[in-house]
Specification:
Number of strands: 16
CATH architecture of the largest domain: 3-Layer(bba) Sandwich
Radius of gyration: 21 Å
Structural class: alpha/beta
Distance between the termini: 23 Å
Bound molecules: flavin-adenine dinucleotide
Order of helices and strands: EHEHEEEEEHEHEHEEEEEEEH
Amino acid sequence: MESKDVVIIGAGAAGLSCALYLKRAGVSFIILEKGAPGGKLLTIPHIDNYPGLMPLSGSDLAMGIYQSALNAGVEVSYGDVSSVQKNEHGDFIVDSGDESYLAKAVVVATGLSNVPSIKGEKALIGKGVSYCATCDGPLYKNKVGAIYSTGDRGLEEASYLSNVLKEVYVLTPDDQYQGSERLLESLKKKENVIFVNSAKLTEIKGEGHISSIVYQVGSKESELPLDVFFPLLGEKSASSFLSPLKIELSHGFIDVDSGCASSVKGLYAAGDIVNKKLRQVVTACSDGAIASNSIISYLRDKKKEAGL
Ligand SMILES: Cc1cc2nc3c(=O)[nH]c(=O)nc-3n(C[C@H](O)[C@H](O)[C@H](O)COP(=O)(O)OP(=O)(O)OC[C@H]3O[C@@H](n4cnc5c(N)ncnc54)[C@H](O)[C@@H]3O)c2cc1C
């Protein structure tokens, strides 16, 4: 089994920032990513609130963060982590496919992923049901689509879709769409964007490809024929692989102290997976840097304890 001081799980903004700081401090670590370095950022059309940079695409920001890590000498390894547990010496064993790693500390930076929860959703993923408008919207040029969401993320996605699709329905469970005034106002001006408030989604229908969604507003049930649908309210933290540690989670999110340390000694968390109020790129990068700093002290104390 390969042994490292630290295993970082996830190479999004948080994991890459942590890796950058650990590399500069000369700590031995591996960073495991099951998809592509950059994480969620790769799916975001437009970022205009990252301090110090002019508005840019999520992919460009992801590439910038990744490049900073590469320049520092970080190498991202492929790995889909399936479990994290402790051995009798208090070290972590991180399993990823056929590989296992032994580590003194682990950083969980796995962000959020979509968990299908609506009737019919799972069977139609990739068949007109998608979680990324930028990736899949262009496949449905001049067709009819809808998103089910709340907050600015949904508005960003709807804004992108409004330039591609013939009609975009924006369904939200709230009695008024909750999002920033600026984004809402600009979307409301678009003739091809139709808001449906207080909508409770009950089913996604289709044989081999989506054909419609069914929703209720109050007691009235409606069926909306569609070519593509983005149900964005099913995002959950990607933390199921932590179950062997018996760590207590808050709705799947990890509680951490001001140093990004969890209640399990040696286990740190950074980015969207953390139980916190603001999930943004800037807070993900910040968590990564803070976690690295805590880990450096943790490893130093461990060495001292061992008389090294
Ligand atoms: C549509 C949308 C618009 C947004 N707009 C903005 C914006 O304008 N400004 C802003 O600041 N923020 C925005 N955000 C939020 C921002 O994208 C996130 O807060 C940030 O990217 C989170 O980074 P992260 O590193 O915590 O997680 P992620 O970027 O999700 O990275 C986690 C990584 O972990 C990997 N992973 C997961 N599980 C495993 C596993 N078991 N093994 C190995 N790897 C694993 C994933 O593949 C992923 O690459 C937006 C988000 C969305 C969805």
